[in-house]
Structures are given as C-alpha cells and as structure tokens.
C-alpha cells in the first residue's frame, strides 16, 4: 500500500472508532499541504462535521491524534481551522524513496491488454504543414506515448487527404503555370512546390472573378464561372473516372508532397505505424448507410437522400448520403472507422482533429454507437484550439501562413543565438553544438504548444518559449543537464548511489522530502494524463519537479556533505529526478541534453 492509501485506511478506522461511522476510503481525499504550513498531506474536515458533531478544530484534532497513534507513517500533525495537516515521519519517506528508486519499470505501467489507435496529423496534400499542424502532431505523438506508458498497445495512424478539389486546384495551376518545374529544378521541397501552385490557383481565380465582374457578371456568378475553377472541377471528374493523364499528374504531385512531409515529420520527431489514404477510403461507408437504413437508425427523404435524426440527443438531422448516391465527409468517416477496427481490432480510437470539427465527430460517434459498433464506447475526439501568433491569425489561402518548416528552423536559429549569448557551449564540437540547438529549439516549441490545455485556443510566443527561465522547455532541459553534470562528478569521485538502500540514513530535510513527494507523484500524473488525454498535465508536473529540485539544490550541499551515505542519497535523489525529467519529457516527444 502507498503512504496515501495507509493514511486513508487510518482515517477510515478513525471515523469508525471515534465517530462510529463508516466512510469509503476512496472518498477520503488527501490534498498536498500548502507550502506555508508544515506537513505533506492535508485532510479537509468540513464535509464531515455532520458526522463528528463537533467543531472543525476538534474534529481535525481527534482525527490527527488517532492517525499519529495508529498509522506508522504519520509522525505529527497541526490543525489550521478545518484543515488537518499531516507530517510524515522520516523513515517512511526513505522507504518510499528506496522503493521507487529501485523500481526498474517506473513510468511504464504493465500491459492492460487494450489496443488504441491514435489518428493524428491527417494533412491535405495540396500544401505544406503549418503552425496548427505542429500543435496537432505534437499532441498526437505525445498522447500516443502517454497511452503506451499507461499500458496500452498503441497504433499511430495518419489519414492522408490525398484527393479532392483542393489537390485538383494545385494540379490545374501547375499545368497552367508550372513549365514542368520539379522539386529538383526549383530547389523547393515537394510540399512547398504543391503549396506554391495552390496559392497561384487562388490568385488566378481572384483575377478571373474580377475580369468576369468587370464584363458584367454578378460576383456570385463569377465565382462559379471562373474558368480556372471549372477546370479544377473537370479535373476532379477526370480523376474519379480514372483518366490516365490526370492520375499520373496526381501521383507525381503527391509523390513530391510525401517526400516533403517525410522530411517535416522527421524534423518534428513524429512517426506513424499506419497510413490511410482518402483515395482508398473515400468510397467506403455506403454499405453502412444501407445497414443503418435496415436497422432504422437512418431514414430516407423524398429526394432519396439519407439522414440520421439526432434530435433526441440534442442535435439535429444530419445528412449521411446525398440524393444522387454520392458520399459526404461523414459517410467516408463511418467506413474508415470500421476499416480501422477490421485492421486492428482496436478497443479505443482517438482522433486528434481541430475543434472546428467538434460537431462532425459528435455526430459520427453518436451514429457509430447507435449502430452498436464494438469500439463505439472507445471513440474519443481529441479536439484542440487554434494557435495564434502575436501578429494575428494564421491564414493559408493568401500564402501568409506560418509554415511549419520555417518555424522549426527559426526556433533552432533562435536557440543557437540564445545559447551563444549565454556562453553555454564551451568545449562543444560544431556537431554537438548543432545537436544542442536542435534539441533546445524543438524542445521549446513542443513544450510551449503542449503545456496548454489542448482545448484552449492559444497564442504562440516564440521569444518567450525559448527562455531558460520560467515555464519553458529549455528551463526543464537545463535542469536535466545540470543534474547530468552532478552525476558525472559523482561517477568521477566514485559515489556509490546506484543500488543503494537509503532506509537507514536517518534524518532528512524538508526540501528532500518535498522532492520525494513530487517524484512519487509521477505515476499518478501519468495516469491522469492518460485518462484525460492531456500532455499538459505532464508539462506542468515537470516544471514543478524542476523547480522543486532547484530548491533542494539551493538548500543542500551534495559533495561538501561529510557523511558518505548522505552524499549517496542526495546523488540518488538527483539521479531519480533526472530520470523522471527524461522519461517525462520523452512523453512529450522532447529530448533532453546531458550538457548545456
Ligand atoms: N484532412 C482533414 C482536414 O484537414 C482532417 C481529417 C481528420 N480525420 C478524420 N478521420 N476525419 O480537415
């Protein structure tokens, strides 16, 4: 049993013996004691006054006395109004530390026998990835790591939207203006090349609208009749009819785009186990429409279109198949959901997609549940908010989008500048320095995007993100590097901290037990982050841990300490902190340096 569980058990007995009342242990919540008071755990008695029938102070004192007497971990207590602050004894801290220090599988829960798919990234192939995709990719990758650490078998998937009118727009513009340009001839990454023509399409489209309006058409008519748009629509029809030339061009451009994406994914440090392509899946789901009609989940209107009525569930009627038998977005997503299940028999399916699609996923999941899908209860939309830059909202059509490649490079450059200014790379080879800038730049970016609750819209501030102080990735990374240097010194002078048992070293300081408390919290936070699909819980935790370590470090001598067993204990505390930071940052997809 953990310390917390022992105290809860003790409280249960106290209620039984003193007040003759039975309470469930899991209802007896313990909170961390506020820093200004002595103690580790605080029990709030206000909700129990009806049971105790005495004042808050009295209730807390009676419970405190009982715990001190009967729970071996509780050394003392103090009462502040209705708050019972519990002081734990030294040996239980050391027992606890020894236990977690010697646990080789800390941070990896045993398998829970469940399989989960995390779909993320899912880009369109007509343009390069942008800032919003960075949030998506970092979230998806991190949540996959967190679920894996929670004992799931995880399949990371990417549903690539490689077909449709948007790609045809890039293709048409390429045919008109491209002069056979290639990534090689232009020096452009393939995704940037496709994006260039997507932007050109839009420019030309606007010009043509202007001309048509000047020649007397209404704006509305002009938007429909612009020749370049008609060409794109014609191209989509040809693609659907499997026209050879069209398909060849489509393949060519997508191949370029994938090469570009691969490079971007590599820089981001994300990866996938399974790719789905919409060109393969866009016709799926029609059989499910049939099934839904038979089961009475869907109904047909006069024009033959098929709908689902979700008014009972607080939504409205929603189209699932057009009257002419063609699919809509949700038709395909129903089919793809089944396909994912057929492929992997997943228990859970997570979709990392921006919150502009909240309604779509709400409807999709309700339908799949109504249809009784075995994975229905395991569906989860990890919805995230938009990312703004200080200069305003990102736009993609006009070509003023914040490009993911550019932004990552800028972060690495800023990390370089910053590190050089602070003189932190003495004795580094050029290669090592370059690696450090990568780690810091990407770390700053990921941490900044992940520390925020995914649901919240956020402002990305590149300058702030790279600071070495405050709630930033580089601050946590720096803490790791500092500890790594302490460990190097410990190894040099032969401190034996690896497999030591610290239960007998006697008295430890508050800053040490505070640190043990937080180190012990790691797996609780990991569980919580998994339950809530929230990397931000890990990011907050690591910041607290790094700060707590700094307090300990300011408070305690390590190598100047005379007793060798205390030196070993403090080095071991440092070592476990470094391991925890490394493991935790790994869950965010962030590397940590050993020197900086
Ligand atoms: N490609 C889509 C977009 O960019 C996102 C796809 C999300 N995934 C899904 N299964 N619908 O908007």
TrEMBL record:
One of its GO terms (biological process) is arginyl-tRNA aminoacylation. Residues 476-596 form the DALR anticodon binding domain. It catalyses: tRNA(Arg) + L-arginine + ATP = L-arginyl-tRNA(Arg) + AMP + diphosphate. Keywords: Aminoacyl-tRNA synthetase, ATP-binding, Cytoplasm, Ligase, Nucleotide-binding, Protein biosynthesis. SUPFAM superfamilies: Anticodon-binding domain of a subclass of class I aminoacyl-tRNA synthetases, Arginyl-tRNA synthetase (ArgRS), N-terminal 'additional' domain, Nucleotidylyl transferase. It holds the Pfam family DALR_1. Its EC number is 6.1.1.19. One of its GO terms (molecular function) is ATP binding. PROSITE patterns: AA_TRNA_LIGASE_I. Belongs to the class-I aminoacyl-tRNA synthetase family. Monomer. This is Arginine--tRNA ligase.
């Amino acid at each position: 049993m953990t310390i917390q569980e022992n105290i809860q058990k003790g409280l249960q007995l106290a209620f039984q013996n003193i007040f003759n009342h039975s309470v469930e242990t899991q209802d007896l919540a313990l909170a961390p004691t506020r820093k200004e008071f002595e103690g580790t755990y605080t029990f709030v008695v206000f909700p129990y006054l009806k049971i105790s029938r005495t004042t808050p102070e009295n209730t807390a004192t009676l419970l405190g006395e009982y715990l001190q007497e009967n729970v071996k971990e509780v050394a003392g207590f103090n009462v502040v109004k209705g708050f019972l602050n519990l002081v734990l004894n030294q040996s239980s801290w050391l027992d606890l530390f020894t236990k977690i220090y010697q646990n080789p599988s800390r941070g990896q829960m045993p398998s829970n026998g469940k399989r989960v798919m995390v779909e993320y990234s899912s880009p369109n192939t007509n343009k390069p990835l942008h800032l919003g995709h960075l949030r998506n990719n970092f979230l998806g990758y991190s949540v996959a790591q967190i679920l894996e650490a929670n004992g799931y078998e995880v399949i990371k998937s990417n549903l690539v939207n490689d077909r449709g009118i948007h790609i045809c727009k890039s293709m048409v513009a390429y045919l008109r203006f491209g002069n056979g340009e290639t990534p090689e001839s232009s020096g452009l990454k393939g995704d940037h090349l496709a994006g260039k023509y997507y932007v050109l399409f839009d420019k030309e489209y606007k010009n043509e609208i202007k001309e048509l309006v000047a020649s007397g058409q209404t704006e509305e008519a002009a938007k429909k009749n612009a020749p370049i748009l008609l060409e794109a629509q014609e191209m989509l029809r040809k693609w659907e009819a499997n026209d050879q030339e069209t398909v060849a061009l489509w393949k060519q451009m997508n191949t370029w785009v994938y090469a570009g994406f691969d490079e971007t994914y590599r820089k981001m440090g994300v990866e996938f186990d399974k790719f789905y392509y919409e060109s393969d899946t866009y016709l799926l789901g029609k059989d499910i429409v049939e099934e839904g009609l038979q089961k009475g989940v869907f109904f047909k209107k006069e024009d033959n279109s098929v709908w689902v009525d979700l008014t009972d569930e607080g939504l409205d009627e929603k189209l699932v198949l057009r009257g002419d038998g063609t699919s809509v977005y949700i038709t395909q997503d129903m089919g793809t959901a089944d396909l994912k299940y057929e492929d992997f028999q997943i228990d859970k399916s997570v979709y990392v997609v921006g919150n502009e699609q909240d309604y779509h996923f709400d409807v999709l999941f309700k339908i799949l549940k109504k249809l009784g899908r075995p994975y229905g209860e395991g569906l989860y939309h990890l919805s995230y908010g938009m990312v703004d830059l200080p200069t305003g909202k990102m736009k993609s059509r006009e070509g003023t989008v914040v490009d993911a490649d550019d932004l990552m490079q800028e972060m690495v450059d800023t990390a370089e500048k910053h590190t050089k200014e602070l003189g932190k790379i003495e004795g580094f080879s050029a290669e090592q320095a370059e690696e450090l800038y990568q780690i810091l730049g990407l770390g700053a970016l990921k941490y900044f995007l992940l520390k925020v609750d995914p649901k919240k819209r956020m402002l990305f501030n590149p300058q702030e993100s790279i600071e070495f102080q405050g709630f930033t990735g580089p601050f946590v990374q720096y803490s790791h590097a500092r500890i790594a240097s302490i460990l190097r010194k410990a190894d040099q002078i032969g401190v034996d901290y690896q497999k030591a048992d610290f239960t007998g070293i006697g008295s430890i300081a508050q800053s040490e037990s505070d640190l043990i408390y937080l180190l012990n919290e790691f797996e609780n936070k990991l569980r919580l982050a998994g339950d809530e699909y929230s990397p931000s819980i890990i990011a907050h935790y690591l910041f607290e841990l790094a700060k707590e370590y700094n307090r300990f470090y300011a408070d305690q001598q390590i190598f100047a300490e005379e007793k060798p067993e205390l030196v070993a204990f403090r080095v071991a505390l440092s070592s476990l902190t470094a391991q925890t930071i490394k493991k935790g940052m790994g869950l965010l997809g962030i590397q940590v340096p050993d020197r900086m």
